[in-house]
Amino acid sequence: MPLFAVRCVDADGSGPLRQQHLVAHLSHVEAHMARYRIAGPLAPSGSLLVIEAADEDDARAFIMADPYGAAGVWAQVIVEEFRAAAGTWVGGATWK
Fold first, then answer.
1. What is the pTM of this model?
2. What single DSSP character describes residue 65?
C-alpha cells in the first residue's frame, strides 16, 4: 500500500480542544497502529504522520476520522504521497 505524509496544522487556540480529545485520539491511533509508519506532534503547531492508504482520498478520510480531525483541532490537513528513499529506517539508500 502507498505511503502518505500528512501534516496536520493546529487551529488557533486549539490547545484546550487537543487536551479534551487526547485520550480518544490516542485510542484511535492504537486501534489503527498497522496503518501508521510514524506519528507524533510537531510542537507547538500540529502533527506529522506517515500512514499507509490506498490513495489520497483514503488517507484524508482516515485522518479526518481521527478524533482530532472530527473535533476541529486541525485547521489544515496536507496530504502528499511519500516514498521513503533514504535513512536508517529504510536501511540506507534505496537506490543502491
1. 0.92
2. T
Q: What is the CATH number of the domain that holds 51?
A: 3.30.70.1060
Q: Which residues are CB-contacts of 7 (< 8 A; sequence separation ≥ 6)?
A: 42, 46, 47, 48, 76, 77, 78
Total structural domains within the chain? 1
The answer to whether position 74 is within a domain reads: yes
Task: Annotate 19-49 with b (16+ C-beta within 10 A) or e (fewer).
Answer: eebeeebeebbeeeeebeeebeeeeeebbeb
d(CA 18, CA 3): 25
Domain that holds residue 66: 3-83
pLDDT in tens, 30-84: 999 999 999 999 988 999 999 999 999 999 999 999 999 999 999 999 999 999 9
Q: Which helix (H) or strand (E) holds 4?
A: strand 3-10
Mean pLDDT (whole number) for 7-29: 97
